[in-house]
Amino acid sequence: MRTPFMAGNWKMYKTPAETTAFFNEFLPMVADAKDREIVINAPYVNIAAAVTSASGSNVGIGAQNLFWEKEGAYTGEISGPMLKASGCQYVVIGHSERRQYFGETDATVLKRAVAALEAGLIPIVCVGELLEEREAGRTNEVLQTQFDGGLAGLDDEQFAKIVIAYEPVWAIGTGKTATPEMAGETHQAIRALVAAKFGADAATAVRILYGGSVKPNNVKDLMAMEDIDGGLVGGASLEPASFAAIVNF
Ligand code: 13P
């Protein structure tokens, strides 16, 4: 059985003080949710506040990106060992916003994922198609390309540690969720890619999260799909009550 995994992605929202205020409200709301993994992926500058607030709780902290070198003259970048030393356990990699605005590619996704694993972080690796790709019937082909150019470069041991997030780009922040059936079908297709490359056991074990307008009112139907193991939640993770409702679906 795969442990459900509910992750918030705060994107570029909140200050450190707002982070602390969030956790003060949020932690008691999810304190009884012991049978699932709960994560907040915070902006870098909020990680210290988040780690302090969540210390000793059932909520883990992650970042939203990392650079693949351990240290060096890379102005503005943050490395895996730095995140680990700051108390992070997770890191989001290859989010579509990173691909769209910051030149992220499948090849750099792979480098970041390897660096995260080397630092002892769990990578939450994002894949997903654009609207025009879905409309052209190219979803599976796009996912195959992203998989082949990214995750397929991991070895079996590395792959066993990662979490995949399927985020159809047209559903992010738009209020348009993929229907549970549509998402479930795509998750199944991703699991088939994993099976072909890493074997049936790896495919059964890997958790695949759905992301894209997950809300308290649609989470249950999404989670009812066999191949959907959790959510990567943007907007609805910013409010303690709405993210707690999602976690406690
Ligand atoms: P929304 O939940 O705001 O659609 O964002 C999804 C997302 O991009 C999570 O990484």
* Fraction of residues in helix: 40-55%
- Report Rg: 17 Å
CATH class: Alpha Beta
Second rung of CATH, namely the architecture? Alpha-Beta Barrel
Q: How would you spell out the order of helices and strands?
A: EHEHEHEHHEHHHEHHEHEH
Report on the structure:
The protein has twelve helices and eight strands. By secondary structure, the protein is α/β, with parallel strands linked by helices. It has a single domain, classed as Aldolase class I (TIM Barrel), CATH 3.20.20.70. An eight-stranded parallel β-barrel has the order 1-2-3-4-5-6-7-8, surrounded by five helices. Helix 2 links the parallel strand 2 and strand 3. Helix 1 packs parallel to helix 2 and helix 1 runs parallel beside helix 12. The two termini are 18 Å apart. The structure holds 1,3-dihydroxyacetonephosphate (13P). 1,3-dihydroxyacetonephosphate (13P) binds next to strand 8.
Labels describing this entry:
249 residues, alpha/beta, TIM Barrel, binds 1,3-dihydroxyacetonephosphate
How are the SSEs placed, and which strands pair?
Elements lengths: L4 E5 L6 H15 L6 E5 L5 H8 L4 E5 L16 H6 L4 E4 L2 H6 L4 H13 L3 E6 L3 H5 L3 H11 L6 H4 L3 E4 L13 H19 L1 H6 L1 E5 L7 H5 L6 E4 L6 H8 L2
Parallel strand pairs: 1-2, 1-8, 2-3, 3-4, 4-5, 5-6, 6-7, 7-8
Task: Please sum up the structure shown.
By secondary structure, the chain is α/β, with parallel strands linked by helices. The protein has helices at 16-30, 47-54, 80-85, 96-101, 106-118, 131-135, 139-149, 156-159, 180-198, 200-205, 219-223, 240-247, and strands at residues 5-9, 37-41, 59-63, 90-93, 122-127, 163-166, 207-211, 230-233.
